[in-house]
DNA sequence: TGCACACATGGCAAAATAACCCTATATATA
DNA sequence: TATATATAGGGTTATTTTGCCATGTGTGCA
């Protein structure tokens, strides 16, 4: 322990809150799920559309979408034989530009090293 | 496969991009790391401050911070015996309000079920 | 010079995740 | 009603992540 004044431990309530937040973010932390979320920014899509586009088993795609639904990021609606998914809280899309900023900052650093 | 017109598979380049994005988001997808990132919004902190606050081994805290650094989210600076961490791309903080919105949306739904 | 502190890192075991295959369910359609 | 289609969910295995311990490194101080 270091000799510091202002100590502020993580309370029990905070632990629960941050676990919940991490759970939402974790749902976005997968290439396929991230891609699907960004596609949903353009409007709803059914599972089979994703299954065609993504190079993965149908059941894998279905499970990814289920995970996003459980996290509260998307919602689904069954119409006929198909199930359509759409963004429930569209603000998640806005975050992507920041993620890109992180990557660009990294890239800039990397290229600076080569000089 | 369903009978749909507009099919747009994930290109190889997109796979790389989304893997990179997911890597950044994954760095945030942990309760302890998330908590540390939010604390850093108030200014830099040294590792030992976190170690005092977080209920985990010192080495665990150090590894979490290393992971955030490798993801390009924080940067560190050694001053004397201590290493100080600070946010490198502060926009990540703005995302938190959206994550909270997701959780509130979920909570609202849950309580609606009880009526 | 030697010691104590602040961190980082390698190794390891447990836990969580991911992706496949297979089966079950619901809905349109013949 | 039988059948094909669209999707969900269980089971299993491989991979990744997590967190602790032990150890190594650098820095200030006695």
What would you say this structure looks like, in words?
Two copies of one chain form a homodimer. Helix content of chain A is 57%, strand content 12%. Chain A has 115 residues and is of the alpha+beta class. Chain A has a domain at 15-89: Arc Repressor Mutant, subunit A, CATH 1.10.10. Chain A has a three-stranded antiparallel sheet. The longest helix of chain A is centred in the last third of the chain and has 19 residues, at 95-113. The termini of chain A are far apart. Chains A and B meet through helix 1, helix 2, helix 3 and helix 5 of A and helix 1, helix 2, helix 3 and helix 5 of B. Chain B binds a DNA duplex (30 and 30 nucleotides) through residues 2, 26, 30, 46-48, 51, 56-66, 78, 80-83.
